[in-house]
Design goal:
This protein is mainly beta and 171 residues long. 2% of the residues lie in helices and 21% in strands. A three-stranded mixed β-sheet has the order 14-13-15.
Length: 171
């Protein structure tokens, strides 16, 4: 028997579990059916996702997200404090100390509370975070994430020479 969906071999994106299927079944979200004559669905591999029914080719999880399990329908955003730098990430990577990140990040570029971010002179913040995130200057307030020298809070009774100097002096 022949229909618009099943005229001979089962179409890609569908499963035909019986040899004489008249109405093929679309592969479920989280699964794919890559070729004609598919008898059973295949779960999307880790690092990939199958967002809709009748998927033929799994989709790589985009940077900033990860697909931790087989059968992933929707990518999971990387959590704060971790990053997902590449497509098809399976496990988020922890940010190197003293860096952190926001939800869905591809890199870590925020200094933790208690540190101040200094402008990069040379090098990548990810490979040399201790050169870019310095301990908060004495008597300063670095309680806000990603405090920079320019945004450094100077408490009453102290002063500093410019927005680019870390030293605080008592009045």
């Amino acid at each position: 028997m022949q229909t618009s969906l099943c005229g001979g071999a089962c179409p890609a994106g569908y499963a035909c579990p019986k040899q004489a299927t008249v109405s093929p079944t679309p592969c479920s979200p989280g699964s794919y059916c890559p070729q004609e004559a598919t008898v059973a669905e295949t779960l999307c591999p880790r690092g990939l996702h199958c967002p809709q029914a009748a998927t033929i080719d799994p989709v790589r999880c985009p940077p900033g997200s990860y697909c931790p399990e087989e059968g992933t329908v929707n990518p999971v955003p990387c959590p704060p404090g971790q990053y997902c730098p590449e497509e098809a990430t399976v496990d988020p990577l922890p940010c190197p100390y003293p860096l952190t990140s926001r939800n869905g990040s591809t890199t870590c570029s925020i200094c933790l509370e208690g540190f101040s971010l200094v402008p990069p002179a040379v090098g990548d913040i990810m490979t040399r975070p201790d050169e870019h995130c310095l301990s908060c200057p004495r008597n300063a307030d670095c309680s806000a994430p990603n405090t920079t020298l320019a945004s450094l809070s100077v408490p009453a009774g102290y002063w500093r020479a410019s927005l680019l100097t870390p030293e605080l002096y008592e009045c």
